[in-house]
Amino acid sequence: MTTDKRAVITVKGLEKAFGANQVLRGIDIEIDKGEVIVVIGASGSGKSTFLRCLNCLEDPTGGNIYFDGVDIADVSVDINVHRQKMGMVFQQFNLFPHMTILRNMTIAPMKLLKMTKEDAEKKALGLLDRVGLKDRANDYPNQLSGGQKQRVAIVRALCMDPEVMLFDEPTSALDPEMVGEVLDVMKKLAAEGMTMVIVTHEMGFAREVADRVIFIDEGVIAEQGPPAEFFGNPKSPRLQDFLSKVL
Amino acid sequence: MSTLTFAKWIADAPGWVLGLSEGLQRFLFQLFQCFIYGDRWKMYLNGLKITFIVTLGALALGVVIGLILAVIRTSYDSYTVTKPPIVLRILNPLVQIYLTVIRGTPMMVQLLIMGFVIMMPKTQAGGIACGIITLGINSGAYVAEIIRSGLQSIPKGQTEAGRSLGFNFFQTMWYIVIPQAIKNILPALGNEMITLLKDTSLVSVIALRDVTKQAQNIVSVTYNAFVPYITLALIYLALVLILTKLLRILEKRLKKSDH
């Protein structure tokens, strides 16, 4: 049954300004459980800022973000508790270079979820196995290639059992031959029903995996829809122009 | 203890000494007078004990103060767009004043004020506490700036990764940023430790009997400055060399993750 669809994240009138620079000008969106949303847009359009507002890495300057029914844009809410349920993957991987891969993955579950070392390591090794990196558990991040680092970054976030995964241009810093291995992991994750919000320039990936594609332009959602329609029949001139440049 | 003269010493000296040249005899007398007579070598050891206690105490206090100040300054500076919370807006200027005053006045003057105006210790233990607190407060100001530069050297993405996993600001600092920063600042921190160790020689002005004060005492009873002061210099030099060696070992161990 697919009737139990419910919004995991509901964004209402989201605004973000850096000083006088208004980057987001009122974004409304509902993200359903299990939905894979790909966010595209020109550089400077606000797509990364939008993603970073979803877990309040950037504090919104207006609007509401309801996550599990709580408005996390409200400054009186303890954002740390909610962030535990929102995994994030960065363009620059941001693994902790002073810790082994295993420690990178177990530190948050152990310190925040009070998991025992054995349980956390068992879980981490299981996840590493799924992305083909179990034998690298005791290496340090600097010993890994970019694609391997990003796969570790994804499973590090998964160790916290997040309800949503946010991806901020996860393949943009990778050498071309490593993009595929990371996208494959993300595809598997999508197929398993993970709710995902992905900012990317990989249009092929968006077409293949997204349930909905969102085009952000000048701080608002200019167009959105299922990928077939979105790419096949773009309505707004801005999107047509953008797609003609990137496809 | 009665003063030992060269004449008295040579009269009781063992036979082999009498065969030496007078220059050598006088040198041996000085060594005897400054180390062996009246078990004076114990004075250096007792002084070293005080030097060690004050150094370690001040070091610990300095690092704690420095860390707290650095975190306050760094978190205040991290609010580039929005206004920092009220606590930080109160604390940050206080930290600034502290740094300005401590770095703007000589350590000697700080010791004199702490020893004779503020704390006025009556006992040796009180004096040690006074020395530790003064040197710790002083060192903290320098350590704060060292740690601050270290914290700023860590890419913002590290903090963001920590926060995105659900760690709060202090957990992110403690588990992720500070361990990496320490590695970067270890050479500068090592310099500060060496400076601090040598600066403990100033505590003699508040009547603490550290190794410098003991050497001065020996000079004042023997009227011989050469042997005690050269010995004193060698003692500090040896301590600094040992400290340098330890820091190098630590640096090497921390480099483990740089492949």
Give a quick summary of the entry.
Chain A is an alpha/beta fold and 247 residues long. Chain A has 9 helices and 10 strands.
Brief descriptors of the model:
heterodimer, A: 247 residues, alpha/beta, 6-stranded mixed beta sheet, 4-stranded antiparallel beta sheet, 10 strands, 26% strand, B: 259 residues, mainly alpha, MetI-like fold, 2 domains, elongated
End-to-end gap of chain B: 63 Å
Major sheet size, sense and barrel closure of chain B: none
Shape of chain B: elongated
Overall mean pLDDT of chain A: 94
How is this structure best described in words?
- The complex is a heterodimer of chains A (247) and B (259).
- Chain A has 247 residues and is an alpha/beta fold.
- Chain A has nine helices and ten strands.
- In chain A, the strands form two sheets. Chain A has a six-stranded mixed sheet, with helices on both faces. Chain A has a four-stranded antiparallel sheet with strand order 2-1-4-5, with helices on one face.
- In chain A, β9 and β10 form a beta hairpin.
- The mean pLDDT of chain A is 94.
- Chain B folds into two domains: 154 residues, MetI-like fold (Orthogonal Bundle); 50 residues, no CATH class.
- Chain B has eleven helices and no strands.
- Chain B is elongated, with a radius of gyration of 24 Å.
- At the A-B interface, α2, β6 and α3 of A face α8 and α9 of B.
